Amino acid sequence: MKAVYATDLSAASEAAIENETCLECLGRIGVEELHLVTVVPDNVHAGTPGIDHVKRRRRALDRYQEVIEGAGLGVETHVVRGTPHRRINGIAESVGADLSIVSSRGKSPLENRLIGSTTRNLARTTVVPLLVNRIERGVDDPALVEKHLFERTLYATDFSENADRAFEAFSYLRHATQEATLVHVQTETSPGPDGDADPGQRLAELADRLEEWDVDATTDVRRGDPVDEILAVEAEYEPTTTLLGSRGRSRLRRLLLGSVSESVIANADGNVLLVPPERTV
């Protein structure tokens, strides 16, 4: 597997990239090659007196590269200019990446209101599964909130086609996942699976599949607001990563602020792995 790791060279990004446990978890799910990407935004002028932005970023990436190679992973570095989420998506497509990774402190009221953040824009437009790696907030020397990325995974499903696609991520996550919690939130407009199938039974069937992979699985059916209930389950079970699918990549979806996936990414305490819909040609 190939992964694109986007970094803004902040202390938060450095904490994630230089963490040996995090790198080991990526290797365990099959990541063999990391593409480190840093984007010089268009509004940062190349001719800023006394500052060579590209050279500074290349030096930083060289330092990260040594750490990653020491963990046994291959590395390529990319310093590019443009709009961050567009360039990150573009590189993911061009190198044939299986995963994109971005660090985020999250849970900031200001960040939750801004639609221009790289993390939120990536959540809306990502072309491959996106791992939002949560970093501590409010400290000068930040660390990863959860170093063992996929050890305990919370999977949220509405039984849609894309939620099923997200579940298939366990085909590689299972090599790092020991425990999984499967949750469905019933609402008036989305009570459960199509037809007469019982949501509890459907979750049990998924749990059986995970048990065959030696993953201990529990199920939880709730009723209420999907975002509130998913976050409540996260607080109760304390997973290291929450896995869910996004609904689509339409222009309308990208403009809406209220999607379940974006709200979970903005407010979750731990990491979030977002699986986008399969691309149509």
TrEMBL record:
Pfam families: Usp. It comes from the Archaea. Residues 2-132, 150-276 form the UspA domain. InterPro entries: Rossmann-like_a/b/a_fold (IPR014729), Universal_stress_UspA (IPR006015), UspA (IPR006016). Belongs to the universal stress protein A family. This is Universal stress protein.
